[in-house]
Specification:
The protein is an alpha/beta fold and about 300 residues long. The chain has twelve helices and ten strands. The chain has helices spanning about 20-30, 40-50, 55-65, 65-75, 85-90, 130-135, 165-170, 200-215, 220-230, 240-260, 280-295, 295-305, and strands spanning about 5-10, 35-40, 80-85, 110-115, 120-125, 140, 145, 150-155, 175, 265. The longest helix is centred in the C-terminal third of the chain and has 23 residues, at about 240-260.
Length: about 300
């Protein structure tokens, strides 16, 4: 029998996406190497690094990423999104090859969303970095990207786990990584304080607000924004609401899409405890990515014919 063509669909999930690194490593340890990779949002970023043979460089960087390193990467512009994204993409310059997608040794594609008509866009040609930047443009947070005459947003709005794209590219067996399986309500539930109390989405928001205040000439307006965006005792803060809304949206879309076009194996890293922007918690995410493969190993071995 011919070896099945394996497709790996790496889903969206913001900071939880570092789990994709652990998933790829654990699959390789088991002798399972995908023949093609499709990614959405953070899955596009990790997938592009992997297909460009730079995953080791990315892993080394994210494992050293600290809270203040994350803050420095968030360049506040308030132009189509709170964050422009130029500093972030500059940081990935040595982790994502400056190459055309069709020139990669391993087939790769990623998903974005057309802002004007809401259509799902498959990016399979052109600049690898530009495609990744479009796929990670989380609405309201990162500015949209103009690409071939269209304004593109995060692919998680239309196809958070791109199983259909993997299938269209010729995969016989599809391994999907769903980062959104246990996230509903996590941002508004009380959680025990972490070892470093200054970390977390709210702390990141505080730092963003300081940058925002510095960019607003009218200090009264900056103070108003500061007071309105912070959490209050009477209910969830605006960042809690935004993060939870994004989680709900991606969870519902993921379930709907995979019900109509199910993958052969679904890996579900349990990372609901990670906040939307807690990119400094890579150690936890990568370890859970490994564990998600371990839990699904019997199914993987059966399907791939070990």
């Amino acid at each position: 029998m011919a070896k099945p063509r394996i497709g790996l669909a790496l889903g969206s999930g913001s900071a939880r996406g570092w789990a994709h690194i652990g998933v790829i490593q654990a699959l390789k340890e088991q002798g399972i190497e995908p023949d093609l990779v499709c990614g959405c949002s953070i899955g596009a970023l990790v997938g592009a690094s992997y297909c460009g043979d730079q995953l080791g460089t990315l892993e080394e960087w994210v494992r050293k990423l600290g809270f203040w390193d994350v803050v420095k990467l968030l360049d506040v512009r308030m132009s189509g999104g709170l964050i422009e994204g130029d500093s972030l993409m500059a940081a990935f310059a040595d982790k994502i090859r400056d190459i055309r997608i069709e020139k990669l040794d391993k087939p790769f594609a990623c998903v974005a969303t057309d802002l004007q008509n809401g259509r799902e866009i498959w990016l399979q040609q052109g600049s690898l970095r530009a495609a990744v930047r479009a796929s990670i443009a989380l609405p309201g947070l990162f500015s949209p990207v103009q690409h071939e005459g269209r304004w593109l947003l995060d692919g998680g709005l239309t196809n958070p786990v791109p199983v259909s794209l993997c299938r269209a590219m010729g995969a016989d067996v599809i391994i999907a990584v769903n980062l959104n399986s246990d996230i509903i309500g996590r941002h508004i539930k009380h959680q025990a304080p972490r070892e470093n109390a200054d970390k977390g989405d709210q702390a990141l928001l505080d730092q963003l607000l300081e940058k925002l205040n510095g960019s607003i000439k009218d200090t009264r307006l900056g103070a108003w924004a500061n007071s309105k965006l912070r959490n209050h005792d009477e209910g969830p803060g605006v960042f809690d609401v935004v993060a939870s809304a994004i989680n709900i949206m991606q969870d519902r879309i993921t379930k709907s899409r995979m019900a109509g076009d199910p993958p052969d194996v679904v890996l579900t890293p349990r990372l609901g405890k990670l906040g939307l922007l807690e990119f400094d918690r890579a150690e936890e995410a990568i370890a859970e990515g490994h564990d998600s493969v371990r839990r699904a190993l019997p199914t993987l071995q059966h399907l791939i014919g070990r």
